[in-house]
Amino acid sequence: MLNSCDILFDEDLSMKFFAEHIGKSINIILSDGLEASDEVLTDEYKKKIALFINDFEIWYDDVFNAIKDYFNRKGISITLPDDVELMKIFVLFEQNEQGLFGLGFRIKEEQEHGCGLKIEVCDSIYKLTKVSHPNK
Q1: What is the pTM of this model?
Q2: By CB distance 3.0 to 4.6 Å, which of 7, 32, 37, 75 could disulfide with 46?
């Protein structure tokens, strides 16, 4: 379980954490387009990021199912969790805002394009807001 003090971005605005639910390390990246990328991060901001990571098992299955449904509607069969691989998590919110994260996935049948998804966080409620697939 991560604490706010564990949220330490390097000079490239990234850090890794191990996601036990899927058995791999994931990069989490603080978007360089945010004012937060040039600011000292508050403990409250780091807590929001740590909570999102700690709640991985809560939101991941819903995210996987949303991606599966999206691709099935496009005629691309996603049947196994191995067909989808989470590659990166992007922090997309400023320090004074509610949580917004972007998730970048590799899709086995669509490796050239992959898939992205945005997830809003408000009071520990996770709302999937957008699934995107470039060039489709």
Answers
A1: 0.91
A2: 7
Residues in contact with 76: Cβ distance below 8 Å, sequence separation at least 6, in sequence order: 107, 109, 110
- Strand segments (E) across 42-114: 84-91, 99-107
* Each residue's pLDDT tens digit, 87-135: 999 999 999 999 999 999 988 876 677 889 999 998 889 999 888 876 5
Helix (H) or strand (E) holding 51: helix 43-54
The answer to whether 46 touches 95, Cβ cutoff 8 Å, is no
**Contact indicator for 132, 116 with CB cutoff of 8 Å:** yes
* Buried b or exposed e, range 58-95, using 16+ CB within 10 angstroms: ebbeebbebbbebbeeeebebeeeebbbbebbbbbbee
Report how far residue 108's alpha carbon sits from residue 42's, in angstroms, rounded to the nearest whole number.
38
d(CA 55, CA 33): 25
